Amino acid sequence: MNGDGKSVKRTAEVTYRRAEEADLPRAFAVFRAALNAYLVRAGQEAVPDDDEQSPSYRHFLEHDGERFWVAEADTDEFTGGHADPTRAGGREIVGWGCGLLRGDWWFLSSLFVLPEAQGIGVGARLFELAGTGAPAEAVRATITDSLQPISNTLYARRGLLPREVVVGFGGRPREGLRRPRLGSLEPGPLTPAAIPELREIDAAAGGVDRGVDHAFYLTSGRRGWLFRRRGRAVAYLMTRGDGWIGPAASVRAADIEPVVAFGVAALARHGPIEKVRAGVTGRCEGAQRALWEAGLVFDGTPGLLLSSRLFGRLDRYVPASYGMF
Asked: What are the pLDDT digits (tens) for 76-92?
């Protein structure tokens, strides 16, 4: 409250503009502050201060720049005119959001608002702006944390309803983990030259064209395999150096279990991994079985896949991340 007894936040002037390259460090700071504000209270692992998100943010700028927006305000207005020694003062980014458009599928990748700037409509406006250019008939989706009832209510009121639980797995693979039996599946190295085949697999697994995202994954450090059966590409899998598994997809639901098991074993063989992680929808039972068998456990609170309507064949798909699905 200020000296007049009025809420300072309610009178703060917030402006919106498209994001630029120079905004990315501040975007990460807002991302971290917004998440840690509730994760720490809930006893969850805090987001560290080392920025590993900027490559993804640059990918968003390149391919979805018209849907990447920031909200700016004078931070002194959020402290009643009293200087906050942790901030430089003046106008700076207090929130941002970004939506990805892939054909007739729109995904809200990110929407983060500083705690002190919440409750004045910033999130709602960023949600609208992140949908710039999305066709009215597009499927709209996002993944949220089940710990966030306010955000989930915001999305539900705009037609994005809970469709699936997204279970986080984590842990060290058990000792002596061996390469699984693959039957007629034949794995080979995955390179950008195979992206047309990945798009065909994606069409069978979920109908979303992820070609530009696959190019990003394969040129930003992910390791991948393409699985063939009698010469035909039928599945793929990628892993990150930090132990994350995904994306993975298969034409047949029965193939996702050995494919994911192969990925865990490959990470275990590649070197000492402190923690192998993945996010799996409740419908993808094969991937869950593979992760359980490898010794992983539930890690953190479940996420929620929200969407305007059902989409894809999620029994044969493992997301690339919560922010890119």
From this structure: 766 554 444 344 457 89
